[in-house]
Write a structure and sequence with these properties.
It is built from one helix and five strands. By secondary structure, the chain is mainly β. A five-stranded mixed β-sheet has the order 2-1-5-3-4, with helices on one face. The longest helix has 11 residues. The chain starts with 9 loop residues before the first strand and ends with a strand.
Length: 86
């Protein structure tokens, strides 16, 4: 258990920009795309900017949780996201 969360509720993410800048995050699977987008903008010190997130070739859906979008495991290649500023 980590920070009061049950095992398996966290997802490790590697978020990479078009230019190669990387950000490592551990978030809950229940986080939705919009919440993740806001967290990334905050971590990148870019609040108020627009960000497009992709999981593979598929844009991240803002209203669905990471789990609903198939992003569920820890330390998995499936958890690679890409972003570009809009």
């Amino acid at each position: 258990m980590v920070d009061g969360l049950p095992d398996g509720s966290l997802v490790d993410l590697e978020v990479t920009s078009f230019h190669g800048k990387r950000l490592q995050l551990s978030v809950t699977r229940g986080l939705n795309g919009w919440q993740l987008q806001q967290l990334i903008l905050q971590k990148l010190s870019r609040p108020g900017r627009r960000l497009l997130l992709q999981h593979g070739a598929v844009p991240l859906k803002l209203q669905e949780t990471l789990e609903q979008q198939g992003i569920t495991g820890r330390r998995s290649n499936k958890n690679q996201l890409y972003y570009i500023y809009m």
